[in-house]
Amino acid sequence: MRLAMRLSAIVMVLVLVGAEWLLEGVLPAVSFFSSSLLGGSVVLTVIPLCSEDLITGKWVGALSLAAVFSAYFTAREFGLSCSVAILAVSSLTLAGFYIYRTIRKFRSTRQLFQAEAVWTSVDEYFRFFYSLFLMVTAVLLALSYGSGPCLPADLLLMCLSLSLFILIWLRARSGRTMFLGRRKERLIREMVNAGTRMTLPDSPEDEARMNSTYNRLLALMNDKRPYLKDTYYISDLCNDLGVNKSYISNVISVYSGRNYRQFINYYRIKYATKLMKENPSGLIMETALLCGFHSVVSFNMAFRLNLHMTPSEYLARIRGQEDPSRTGEEDS
To answer: Are residues 298 and 156 in the same domain?
Structure first.
């Protein structure tokens, strides 16, 4: 559905330009290209985020397309400026969309305190950032129409509109903000997925202590492999490191973005991939038990969470001599 909405934005720009070309008999003005790109950018902006209702987003996107097309053909019917009509309707559509989203968002206050709300807020913040750029571009285009044609200015605004369209299209395609780096986005997502509360160090001394504890934790995991015991609980880890539960939980959360169970399962899955590479014909049940899991079900769930595939799919890749995905860089 999101793919169809992304493609519809491109098709809309091409249809508008093609219709103007056919009806006028000449290549459309540069200003019309800019207006059409701006309308397409608005459609891309209202595409639902991964946390939003896809069905509702489908109708919002369809209404946005219909509004822009209606504005174009209505303006032609009454002899008005098609470019100005597209700009006006696109701006009103974007404003209406934000009013609608605000009402829906604050209708249920419980959603504001869910773990997923953190990443949703980040994503919506940058959606608003793009929308602000779109509104500024729309104002500049409107001012350029009022001051008469000026080819250098029109070309500059068209380049700006095209750049915005491409940037917003990439955002809609990848699900990224396109402003934050990949590493920072991944860190935010991992912290959200961890579902844990964390306390950042208040001083350099606290930070040094936490860093030292985390390094000792990594050394313990890599050297002694306590995670291979299916009865290795957080209390056992505290005894091995000489710290309390709340402190080690916070250290794991801050440095890995995981809670204790996710952290231990990460190492278990990493060890499981090692066993699978060494013996691709081994039984999944046997591998699960050797890695510290109580059952194949919990093993499958942890495997999919870390590698986004099942153990069977991973084994198929090994047997097909393909390069399986890496589990991360926890021990790097």
So the answer is: no
Contacts within 8 Å (CB) and 24+ apart, 123-131? 123/49, 123/50, 123/51, 123/177, 124/49, 126/171, 126/177, 126/178, 126/179, 126/180, 127/45, 127/49, 128/98, 129/179, 130/41, 130/45, 130/164, 130/167, 130/168, 130/171, 131/45, 131/94, 131/98
Q: How far apart are CA 90 and CA 131, in angstroms?
A: 11
* Domain hosting residue 243, numbered range: 196-319
Dihedral (CA of 292, 295, 301, 303) sign: positive
How many structural domains compose the chain?
A: 2
pLDDT in tens, 140-172: 888 887 777 777 888 898 999 999 999 998 888
Write out the two tokens for 206: 């606290």
User: CATH number of the domain that 234 lies in?
Assistant: 1.10.10.60
Q: How confident is the model at residue 232 (pLDDT cuts 50, 70, 90)?
A: very high
Here the tokens at position 329 are 């860089």
Is 132 part of any domain?
A: yes
pTM, 2 dp: 0.55
pLDDT at position 326 is 45
Nearest to 260 by CA among 286, 236, 234, 238: 234
DSSP string, 119-151: HHHHHHHHHHHHHHHHHHHHHHHHHHHHT---H
Tell me how far apart the alpha carbons of residues 206 and 190 are, in angstroms, rounded to a whole number.
23
The tokens for 145 are 């129409």
Whole-Å CA distances, 20 to 48, 84, 102, 188, 314: 30, 14, 36, 45, 53
